[in-house]
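Researcher: I'd like a structural prediction for the single chain below. Treat it as a standalone chain; there are no partners to consider.
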Amino acid sequence: MSGIIYGINPVTELLKIRAPQIKKIIFAREKDAKGIKPLLDLAKQKHIPLEQGQRRMLNRISGTTHHQGVVAIVTSRREVALDEIIAAWQDSGDKLLVLVLDGIQDPQNLGALIRTACASGVHGVITGKHRAAPVTGAVFKASAGAAEHTNITRVPNVADAIDVLKERGAWVVGTNPDSSTSLYDIDGTLDLALVIGSEGKGMRPIVQKKCDFLVSIPLRGGIASLNASAAGAIALYEIVRQRHYQRERG
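Model: Treating it as a single chain, here is the predicted structure.
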């Protein structure tokens, strides 16, 4: 995963979780970087080397102008293995909830999906190593730092990873706008792996065949589909809603 993390929220979360692995933080002059004083104060408390630089320097290092005046150079994060996600689920004592992404290529969508997954309490996010966006600094920024709190694994073959989850007792739900089964008709209290397909073509046929259920999100307006991050958010929080209701009922 990326050794360059930028943006106020992502770098702040990095300081909270992996401060010893931060080599240094480079920040723009105060007039060019509003709102970073709390971050710099935290960095000083954790004895992180600080370097002031011009904005064009930060642009070059981060590869973007959207760094909000702060860039962290960090030891690359160790990738989580699929077995570790399964172990996190089994240790939690909760019902499984995993987000599986098949071919998400837009870093903004990937970051938004990771942010929602983290907020909904998933045990992990599974994405592919091929034909999918890598977990870069842009993804970390789009996730608003949630990528630091989420178990993320990149697997060579998404279909094979689904088979492993099914062997462990997971039911697999895939979103498909052509399905006659509504999202609101599934049992969200099962051990679930939720599959979201690519932005343009959706799930590949080989992945779709692995799903136990295919569901659609009812749409009432004049559009035929939602983007991947919106569909993932709606589906995840329908599962969260059902589980909350089950707990409330005792």
